[in-house]
Design a protein that fits this description.
2 domains; 294 residues; alpha/beta; globular; TIM Barrel; Non-ribosomal Peptide Synthetase Peptidyl Carrier Protein, Chain A; 12 helices
């Protein structure tokens, strides 16, 4: 399903349809939705975050902590994607306060139960995205729990929750975990080039890799391509237009600004352009600035 591939990681407030579509165009071999609350789905909300009908090779990432809600949400979500991904890795405080995300790594019995029940009730594959642990690195125990409960894959971001995004991801742990991992093992964390992903797969023995922050403003990372300035401009405007189709102009401009910063990275006049970003209020404003890129 995912072995040998490089895909787009789930990122809250980033990996909506437009973002996924642009990354697919430039080589992402699979994608994920943004994380979706199981409680929202149970209350008949967040359906707009599901993939569009024409999307293929896409996983729906769910987050929460209640086993029954996971089952109900999974039964809904399975009809909209190719597999379900359990978020047991998000380190953000507002998520872990609810017992979700990487907080599940403090209760492996519950994590195991969630996997087991989803596997029992759903008709699509179920995987898990985790970190090395909450405070301490207990990755071997985590892998054991995930395997024992018959998950179809596991993705490991090689930091603990306590580390958040500080320091460096410990890629060596992927190779160590591969020795005990009998299901496909994906790697995540500090993948900022196409070559980084290949190193994780070839040297550190990951079965597949997912790229998160390294793709912000750089969808070409999936194909190891160096775009010229005209292609960058064209891609920015296409990305924005896709978002406008879904959100309307005002909401799109607010949401796109942080992505636009990524697109300007490495450009000659990046600092000058970034100083203008707070004053972008419309598509016309954005287009004018894009045309100034060099």
């Amino acid at each position: 399903m995912l072995n040998g591939k490089i895909g787009l990681a789930p990122m809250a407030d980033y990996t909506d349809f437009a973002y996924r579509e642009i990354c697919r165009e430039y080589g992402a071999e699979f994608t994920f939705t943004e994380m979706i609350s199981i409680e929202a789905l149970v209350r008949n909300k967040s359906f707009n975050m599901f993939p569009k009908e024409r999307e293929k090779n896409i996983g729906i990432q769910l987050f929460g902590s209640n086993v029954d809600s996971f089952i109900k949400a999974g039964l809904i979500a399975q009809h909209y994607g190719d597999w379900i991904d359990i978020n047991a890795g998000c380190p953000v405080k507002k998520v872990i306060k609810k017992g979700a995300g990487s907080a599940l790594l403090k209760d492996l019995n519950k994590l195991g139960e969630i996997i087991r029940e989803l596997k029992r009730f759903l008709d699509v594959p179920v995987g898990v995205k985790v970190r090395l642990g909450f405070e301490d690195d207990i990755a071997e125990k985590i892998i054991e729990t995930i395997q024992k409960n018959k998950a179809d894959y596991v993705i490991v971001h090689t930091r603990t929750q306590k580390q958040l995004y500080s320091g460096k991801a410990n890629w060596k742990r992927i190779r160590e975990l591969k020795r005990i991992c009998e299901i496909p093992l994906g790697a995540s964390g500090d993948i900022y080039t196409y070559n980084d992903a290949k190193i994780l797969m070839n040297k550190y023995e990951a079965d597949f890799a997912i790229i998160a922050r390294g793709s912000i403003g750089n969808p070409w990372i999936f194909s190891n391509k160096n775009p010229d300035i005209d292609e960058i401009k064209k891609t920015i405007l296409k990305h924005v237009k896709l978002m406008i189709d879904d959100y309307g102009e005002e909401r799109t401009i607010r949401r796109f600004k942080k992505i636009f910063i990524g697109y300007t990275k490495g450009l000659k006049n990046a600092r000058e352009i970034r100083n203008q970003i707070p004053y972008i209020n419309s598509y016309d404003d954005l287009e004018k600035i894009v045309n100034e890129l060099n």
